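In this supplementary section we document a worked example of the pipeline. Step one takes a protein sequence of length 303 as its only input; no multiple sequence alignment statistics are reported here. Step two produces a three-dimensional model, which step three serialises into structure tokens for compact storage. The input and output of this example are shown verbatim.
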Amino acid sequence: MWIFDFSNLQLNSKNIEKHKFSLTILIHKIKDVDLLLKTLDSIQSKSSYEKIKLILFNHTDSSLDQLLEGYKLSFNNLKVLNKYNQSDLFNIEAEKIETDYILSIENGMIFNNNFFNKSLLYLSTHNLSLLFFPVQFNNHNKRYIFNQLFHSFKQSFFCSIVNKNMYALKSLEKVGYFINNDTFQSILKDDIEKDIDQKFIMDRELSVYQDNEKIDLSRDYIFDILLLINALFFIKTVQYISSPNLLLLITIFVKIIPELYFQYSYYNQLKIRFPKIEFLVYSIFQPLYLFIIWLSNIKVKNN
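The serialised model returned by step three reads:
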């Protein structure tokens, strides 16, 4: 179907050897120090770059300087932005960034062995300005299976609209992307005049594991579309139960089958076992699940 767009790009391994790219990594939403150390250790062990610049967005109430003393030998420049003056300092620091590429991630993300080399291969081989990559949410813990399935749908949908050039990155606070410095500075100054060469690559070696029990369940346009579809699905299901007919059954399958394809494709591209039984249960209870999320967002907003 037209909307499903999981790009498969060919790579040229010679490109990366021509130039040693410099890199700045932005680590957002640091609220758990243990998760931060896991992320830093993952960068340190997986990256072949001896000197990387780090900018950390500290949302804890304590200073990280003493804790991070041992990492200063591994990274070229390590800057901590504390929450009380974060926005102002980030604009100042961002304008100073001179590295070839910037990677924006969230605290708790852990990388595959070939993540950095392969990401830069995609960027250099295809002259991409912006590269999005998949984030796996706590896939080994079945307690969060509904959240995982919901997350996989959002990632698949987002992948498709990026690859159809129906999405434009407007906030540098978003996570899950590589970007070249020219494009980064243009977005920072709100000076984008043309379409960006961008791709979302569903590649297992680019997938990042999010070692965090809490997934972002805030509302966005993808959630609102899914909530509307599921509201209609719930109405049609109730109508079918009270008065079965072929048209209503077809309507129900029109909703389930594309969603199954969307989410199965995500799991298949990343070579993760697809949870068939769990998906069936999720499909039945998805309207209630989304309604609970919608209510929780209202409560948070009111508080």
